[in-house]
Amino acid sequence: MSRAAAAALAVLLVTACTGGDRTAGPRIDTVLDTVDVDDAVGTDVVFYDLATAPDGPPVALVGAAGADQSWLVRLPSGATTAIPAVEPDSELVITDDGTPLIVGTALTPVGGAVLPLPLGGPPAAVLLAGDTLYLARDTRLAAVDAGTGAVRTTAAAPGPVTHLARAPDGGLTALVDQDGVVLLRLTPDLRPHGDPVELDPDGSGTPTALRVTADGTVVAAMYVNEALDAGRLVTVVDGRVRTVADLEGTDDTALDLAVDPPGRVAYVVLSASYHPAELTAIDLATGERTATVALCGGAGAFGAIAPSADGSTLTVAGSCIDDGGPSTTAFVIG
User: Fold this and answer.
1) Which residues lie closer than 8 Å to 13 by C-beta, 6 or more apart?
2) Which residues contact 50 (CB under 8 A, 6 or more apart)?
3) Which among 154, 271, 302, 317 could disulfide-bond with 252, CB atoms 3.0 to 4.6 Å apart, if both were Cys?
4) Is 305 helix (H, G, I), strand (E, B) or coil?
5) Given this model, what pLDDT does residue 22 score?
6) How many Å apart are CA 41 and CA 72, to the nearest integer?
7) How does pLDDT run across 10-25, given as a tens digit for each residue?
8) Positive or negative: CA dihedral 289, 168, 218, 159
9) What is the reported pLDDT for 226?
C-alpha cells in the first residue's frame, strides 16, 4: 500500500493466538465476526476511538466529515446511538455503570451536560480509574471527578505525556516522549515516584501504547524510526527492562496493543504493503511471536485494539485494501 493510501486510511482510523495452555488465558485465534461500521452508520465514517465496556464487547466512537452528529457503535451487534458531533481528537471512556464519556476539550457524558476540563485543549492521554479521570496534555497532568468534572489535583510532568495506565498498587504509569521514550511512575496525586526507565536509549522512538498487567508488568509499544515501518514491544518489571521484541511491518498500523488477562501474551496488528494484515501474539516472557490471525487477504490499515470485558475476545478497528476500496471494519477475534 502506498504512503498516500496509508495516510488517507490513517484519517479513518485515528487513534492469539496462544498454544493449548489454557492458563495463558482464553484462546484467541479466529475471526469470529466482522462489522462494516460504515454500513452500520449509513455513511463513510471517521474512526475516533474504541473503548472497552464494563459489561461486554467494546464500543466505537465514530463521526463523518461535515456531519452535525457522531455515533456510538456497539460491537459486534452494530447497534448505533447518535450523539452530537464530537471533536476529531475526542476519546471515549465508559464508566463502571455503563455511562459513555466523551473526552475532548471538555468532558461530556452522553446525554448529560458539558463539563469544562482544565487542560486548555483535548488531552493526549486519558485514563478512567473508578470515579477519577486522569488526563495529560503536553506536560500538564490533571485528575478530575468523572461525574462532575471537578478538579481534584494537577501537576507538571518532566516531559510531554502520551499515555497513562493504572498500576495494581493504585499508582499510575506514564509514557513520556522527550529525547526518547521514558517510562515514569506517578503517585495517585500525579507526583513522580522512583527513577524513570529509558525504553528507547537511542532516542528515535515514538510511543504508541501502554498497558500494565495484573502483576505489575508494564508493556509498552513504540515506533523506532521516523518512517514508522519498524516497531518495538518492551516489558518492564521492577523498574528494569525485561523483554524487548522488535517488530517489522508496522507501516499501516497505529501499533496499539492488548494484553491477555493473565498478562502472558500481548497482541499487536502488523500490516504493510510487504506484510499481510495479521493480529500477532507475542509471548511477554520471551518476546517471541507465538501465532497470528489473518485479518485481510493482503495489507490493510489498522487502528485501535480493545478487549471485551471478560477478555474472551479482541476487537480491532481496521480496513482491508481491496478492489472495492476501503471500508471501516471492526474485526471481532476470539
Assistant:
1) 47, 254, 301, 302, 303, 304, 317, 318, 319, 328
2) 58, 59, 60, 61, 92, 303, 304, 305, 306, 315, 317, 330
3) 271
4) strand
5) 31
6) 9
7) 333 443 222 333 344 5
8) positive
9) 87
Distances (CA, A) of 95 to 5, 147, 277, 315, 330: 36, 9, 32, 19, 22
d(CA 243, CA 219): 9
String of DSSP letters for 58-79: -EEEEE-TT-SEEEEEETTT--
Angle at 256 between CA 232 and CA 190, to 5 degrees: 90
Is the pLDDT at 6 greater than 80, yes or no?
Answer: no
Between CA 69 and CA 93 the distance in angstroms is 18
C-alpha cell at 95: 464508566
- What is the pLDDT, as a whole number, of residue 26? 59
Instruction: Find cell 520471551 and name the residue.
Output: 286
